[in-house]
Design a protein that fits this description.
Helix 1 packs across helix 4, helix 9 packs antiparallel against helix 10 and helix 11 packs across helix 12. Helix content is about 35%, strand content about 25%. The C terminus is likely disordered. A hairpin with a 2-residue loop joins strand 17 and strand 18. The strands form three sheets. The chain has an eight-stranded mixed sheet, with helices on both faces. The chain has a six-stranded antiparallel sheet with strand order 14-15-13-16-18-17. It is α/β, with parallel strands linked by helices. It is globular and about 75 Å long. The chain is built from twelve helices and 18 strands. It binds adenosine-5'-diphosphate (ADP), aspartic acid and magnesium ion.
């Protein structure tokens, strides 16, 4: 093993969307190599390739087989890696592209949502030892039963972090189409501010509530394995956002960010028998079908034996699987109605400082009320308040909350130049 430091550089779909961008990524990768680094690059599928592959599957089958889906979806990232390896070779360096399987990414057998259980990085390390730049196809692995798997939407982030942990990289750089993690999605809030740092705790809540700039599992993996994540722009230089441990944070601002999602659905089960074990039956069936459930609310029927209503939210993409999984349970428990609503949106405010500040929730409800936004369900954690609202009300709600909590202003105000009044 050499003493040179290793880095992992991950490029997202927009960053490799066309030939020019692949060449630009290749130049950035080579620049790091020429500075004496051992470089592993993890690439996503180009542009909208993954969406197009999903659409192609749906055009031939209303309910595509998950194993075959993974065979199909994994091709997108392979294309990016092979092309980038060619571009790097033309810059006078040796590069090798590897599929997830060749790179030793071993997963469980949950097709389309697999979890990484091991990274056997020998092949990556020996290629690095030979002086090569290694390109790993993101978003995929090989299951314990030797089938190709994919890691869920946005999964290349997790590939990058897992590879960084396995090769002992000094940093995992996530290159994307924004300059880092912002106080809100900069596409919805033009004056959103880039955060120089964000704690793991807050980043986990942000990723879980829709800030897709980092996939939730990549943040979990980084926290567990002590990987340093630096999220930055692939189109300009300059620092982005570093995700750091809670112990390294100086002081917590009250509110750090507003996040949102419009890819949520709600299911309400009417007439659930009020008896022990009923909820367990429902949610075990969903868990067995690999459906991630978010907010769960059950009303209290007040008098014993009267049926209850159970409401929960889930990703819109899981709605069909959830319906199928619930069918036998609906019959077994005598549930009278399954009401599904695919047009749900979610807006959340996140901040480690809210733990010690009362009144944040009241202010959120007031701001949304003033905008005429109706709150359907409220869900909180110690550092997050989430409101379920109509999907089409999300942009208005996000902007109003970002404004009301002054997130565009940095907490640390620069000193006013001599002779000028501070604001
Ligand atoms: P990539 O293809 O590089 O993986 P993604 O589309 O997965 O990129 O994630 C980047 C996108 O995340 C940005 O274009 C931005 O619109 C969105 N996003 C949502 N919330 C945030 C946030 N708080 N900070 C930065 N980006 C955000
Ligand atoms: N290409 C995959 C997706 O679009 C994985 C990724 O980009 O991270 O979800
Ligand atoms: Mg992504």
């Amino acid at each position: 093993m050499s003493n040179e430091p290793t880095i992992v550089m991950k490029f997202g779909g927009t960053s490799v969307a066309d030939a020019e961008r692949i060449k630009r990524a290749a130049r950035r990768i080579v620049a790091q190599k020429e500075q004496g680094k051992r470089v592993v690059a993890v690439l996503s599928a180009r542009g909208h390739t993954t969406d197009e592959l999903i659409q192609a599957a749906e055009e031939v089958s209303p309910n595509p087989d998950p194993r075959e889906m993974d065979m199909l979806l994994s091709t997108g990232e392979r294309i990016s890696c092979a092309l980038c390896a060619m571009a790097i070779n033309d810059l006078g360096h040796r590069a090798i592209s590897l599929t997830g399987s060749q790179a030793g990414i071993v997963t469980d057998t949950s097709h389309t949502k697999a979890r990484i259980i091991d990274v056997r990085a020998e092949r990556i390390i020996s290629a690095l030892d030979e002086g090569m730049i290694v390109l790993v196809a993101g978003f995929q692995g090989v299951s314990t039963s030797r089938d190709v798997t994919t890691l869920g939407r946005g999964g290349s982030d997790t590939t990058a972090v897992a590879v960084a942990a396995a090769v002992g990289a000094e940093v995992c750089e996530i290159y994307t189409d924004v300059s880092g993690v912002y106080t809100a999605d900069p596409r919805i809030v033009p004056d959103a501010r880039k955060l120089p740092q964000v704690s793991f705790e807050e980043m986990l809540e942000m990723a879980a509530s829709g800030a897709k700039v980092l996939q939730l599992r990549s943040v979990e993996y980084a926290r567990t394995h002590g990987v340093r994540i630096h999220c930055r722009s692939s189109f300009e230089d300059g620092p982005g956002t570093v995700v750091i441990g809670e112990d390294q944070t100086m002081e917590h601002p009250l509110i750090t960010a507003v996040t949102h999602s419009t890819e949520e659905a709600r299911i309400t089960l009417v007439g659930v028998p009020d008896r022990p074990g009923a909820a367990a039956r429902i949610f075990t069936a969903l868990a067995d079908a690999n459906v991630n459930v978010d907010t769960i609310v059950q009303n209290d029927p007040r008098s014993e034996g009267v049926s209850a209503e159970v409401t929960f939210t889930l990703a819109t993409e899981d709605l069909r699987i959830a319906h199928t999984a619930l069918e036998p349970i609906v019959a077994e428990l005598g549930i009278t109605k399954v009401d599904a609503d695919p047009e749900v949106g979610k807006v959340s405010i996140i901040g480690a400082g809210m733990r010690s500040h009362p009144g944040v929730a009241a202010k959120v409800f007031q701001v949304l009320g003033e905008q005429d936004v109706n709150i359907e369900i409220i869900h909180t954690s110690p550092i997050k308040i989430t409101c379920l609202i109509r999907a089409d009300a999300v942009p208005v709600a996000v902007r109003a909350l970002h404004d009301a909590f002054n997130l565009a202003d940095s907490d640390v105000k620069p000193e006013a130049p001599f002779g000028q009044e501070a604001r």
